[in-house]
Amino acid sequence: MTTYKVCFCFQRRYKPASSDPPEPIKGFYSKYSVNGFMGPEELQRFITEVQGEDRASREDAQAIIDSQREFRHLNLFRKGLSLDGFFRFLFAEENCPISHSLGVHQDMTAPLSHYFIYTSHNSYLTGNQLSSTSSDVPIIKALKRGVKVIELDMWPNEKRDNVDIYHGRTLTSPVELLRCLMSIKEHAFTASPYPVIITLEDHLTPDLQAKVAKMLTETFGEMLFTPETEFLEEFPSPESLKMRILISTKPPKEYLDSKTGKDKDHETQKGPDDESVWGAEVSDSELDLRTYSKTESEPTVEDEDPDEGERKPEYKRLIGIAARKKKGSMTESLIVDPHKVTRLSLSEQTFDKATENHGTELLRFTQRNLLRIYPKGTRVTSSNYNPLRGWIHGAQMVALNMQGHGKSLWLMQGLFRANGGCGYVKKPDILLRKDPYIFDPKAKPPLKKTLLVWVYMGDGWRFDFDQTHFDKYSPPDFYTRVGIAGVPADTVMKKTRTIEDNWTPVWNEKFDFPLTVPELALLRIEVHEYDMSEKDDFGGQTCLPVWELRPGIRTVPLCDRKGEPYKSVKLLMRFEIVLY
Length: 580
Known about the structure:
Elements: E1 2-7, E2 10-14, H1 23-32, H2 40-49, H3 58-67, H4 83-90, E3 115-117, E4 119-120, H5 137-145, E5 149-156, E6 163-165, E7 175-176, H6 177-187, E8 196-202, H7 206-220, E9 245-249, H8 252-260, H9 274-278, H10 313-316, E10 319-324, H11 330-333, E11 343-347, H12 348-357, H13 359-368, E12 370-374, H14 388-391, E13 397-400, H15 407-415, E14 424-426, E15 449-459, H16 461-464, E16 478-485, E17 492-495, E18 506-515, E19 522-529, E20 537-545, E21 552-559, E22 565-579
Helix pairs in contact: 2-3, 5-6, 6-7
Protein name: Phosphoinositide phospholipase C family protein
EC number: 3.1.4.11
Organism: Dioscorea alata (Purple yam)
């Protein structure tokens, strides 16, 4: 029994947490077992018919049974799996919804513009955009997680004889450029061998640019990709750029022009209603600082050389991906040049306005060129926007602040769990179709699939949390929220009933999710603990790419708010795809 102290003279006692198999699991065991045991033939049939693993052999099934032999009390006489052994097999980490053995399985020989790329914004900041510390630590963390685009803001140091990295015109402390470059070199390929792109915001004099060129060359050596011409006719592929570092910034003349003709977004303007995009949410408390406002392009550095269009050639030749500013109207900016490719950067607000009338133009542009989207300036707490707005329009570099937490980052982490977590996810063919079949993000296409999701039970909170973490006077009251983040027609959230006073809740509920664009659908899963008097407590989350889900009964490990996996918290769920 579990005892909770209600007051000085009164205690309440509850049944101990139980991890008995839920009724549906007992039903499957009854169907596939013989005389109270599930031997290799029966287990193979279950794996083939329910788990959808057509290639599973009897030897594979026997290996699963053998792996359970250490739990001898669950496998009497070693004839096969008992009910408890079968349940243990289903609730094991190896039975995850995305196969560990899948690895990098997408075609990696297409141009870079055909991939979503894991991108961070102001990668050096440890906290808010106004006063936090600049450091190489968040850069290292991002690279280890699989991020492949690192942003550095370069400014002269106090003596104007070296280069620092910090968020200009704020109280953020600096970190030396060289330290950041050395950390990138050491950790660039920890997650995968595919290329790392460094986007540079350049606020330097020509002499310091020459110093940067020397730093880059000496630090990265042959790892540094240097194109033969100023502008590429087509981007190389991730496969051809393995173990390479690419520099992306505006060519000197472009950079000077962008400073004299800034793209001014009104920061107080509201973007699309997040509530309509996400559905009703259990909100996170977040400090909202409205005292800071700036234009989306930084002002010119004082005393900057007026002839900086003629900059050091050694700096210019290191630019592997030439970037450019928005020129004139959005239609002019999105013109596709058949002879060269480039990178265009837009603030989230400029991008949101572009999607209203230029959706198909954005799609055409991103089929050959790179589009980077970055957070608006008023997100001083390092909050984020919904990245799906960019992805459904083909944007490859949807830059988010990685130092925070919340639903936007959960989606980012979910998408880049695909393709072995290598930091590059191939765009679906629907985003690469040419006229007259180009994808229209505003249209509602016909249904393609229905994702069926069963939420059976959860466990692990009793191991990872203190007894009174959720409620001082009783066991927790958990419920699960499950839904789809994708194109607007597919986006929805649903929830189970609340199971009261139970550390191992059993829901046994089924949900249907019709999908019009399953290629862009992410499955969102959250667990919360109901609190009658206060905000509901957070109990874990994960986000999974629908196109990589394994069918069948699977163990779904949950993560904390920052995306780090809990040691023990997990759900037992089932997935099935129905085609139309």
